[in-house]
Amino acid sequence: MVGTSEIALALSIFRLARPAGTIGLVEISGTNVGAKDFQLQENLRRLGRVLVAYSGGVDSAYLAWAAHRALGAKMLAVIADSPSLARTQLTDAISFAKEQSIPLEVIPTSELDRPEYARNDGQRCFQCKDELFAVMESLRAARGFDAIAYGVNLDDQGDFRPGQQAAKLHHVSAPLLNAGLTKQEIRELARQAGLRIWDKPASACLSSRIEYGRPVTREALDVVERGEEAIRGLGFRQFRVRHHGDIVRIEIAREELERALTPAMAAQFTAIFKALGFKFVTLDLEGFRSGSMNSLLPAELLRRAG
């Protein structure tokens, strides 16, 4: 059993660094971000009638809201209903669109039926976005829309994101990126607009929780989703459940980690995840960090995607 001195030492180390899971706003020049927002509006108007790939996350939600502001009835937000999207995320995304009167259509996608997706190698995200944009392209052609847009931003250029290659393949527009907007600037614009999603924690698809090389199945996705719902029920806000077969690796945001590092909470984690079928339950002492599974990929693959 870990003693209190070891826990205190671990916590003191974490406090030396800025919390990775913190959703704080850096100081942003109002004039600069305002000019970028104006450019975003211009970018959207130039696209004509637009389908917006929408997930309910901060970036796509702000893009959908901005597109509706710029284009009115000439835009339609499209969200993919698939097993890799948590039900709570789908429900919240639909609710936000209704709150803001954003036209929304829910479409089914079948990426899990693609062997190239299910095998879960470094190109899984490409297969996901390729499926999404192929379905959206059919919808665009059928409904007479001029373009498809998605919510990639300037900060995304420094990460491993094969989905961006699928976007290029399908000629999908990137209005936020083209306006030079960063993640923090998008959050600030959403806050200024009074949008409740401005500080919403980042949440990638459920498949990103499963270690590369382990097949993505509906059963594994269900286990991850149930585990994350249970952790949310314990009051944690920013976290991930990482599926490593018999082992579950729980990532908790550093500013919330102190509450996780107690014998009582460890007992609750153990009960939850052993009931879900895991043999070993672990808490990652590095805390939450987006894209941590990418560290398992070969360096050559990461370089090619850069």
Features:
2 domains, Rossmann fold, four-stranded parallel β-sheet, three-stranded mixed β-sheet
Brief overview, please?
The chain is 46% helix and 11% strand. It has helices spanning 4-15, 30-47, 58-71, 87-99, 115-118, 124-143, 163-169, 175-178, 183-192, 218-233, 257-260, 263-275, 299-305; strands at 50-53, 75-81, 104-108, 147-149, 239-244, 247-252, 280-283.
Number of domains: 2
Global Rg: 20 Å
- What is the third-level CATH name, the topology of the largest domain? Rossmann fold
Q: So how many helices?
A: 13
Number of strands: 7
Strand content: 5-15%
What's the mean pLDDT score? 88
Description of the structure:
The structure is a single chain. The protein is an alpha/beta fold and 306 residues long. It folds into two domains: 4-22 and 204-296; 30-199, Rossmann fold (3-Layer(aba) Sandwich), CATH 3.40.50. Helix content is 46%, strand content 11%. It has helices spanning 4-15, 30-47, 58-71, 87-99, 115-118, 124-143, 163-169, 175-178, 183-192, 218-233, 257-260, 263-275, 299-305; strands at 50-53, 75-81, 104-108, 147-149, 239-244, 247-252, 280-283. Strand 2, helix 4 (87-99) and strand 3 form a beta-alpha-beta unit. Helix 2 (30-47) packs across helix 3 and helix 6 (124-143) packs parallel to helix 7. The chain starts with a helix and ends with a helix. Mean pLDDT is 88; it is low at 1-27 and 299-306.
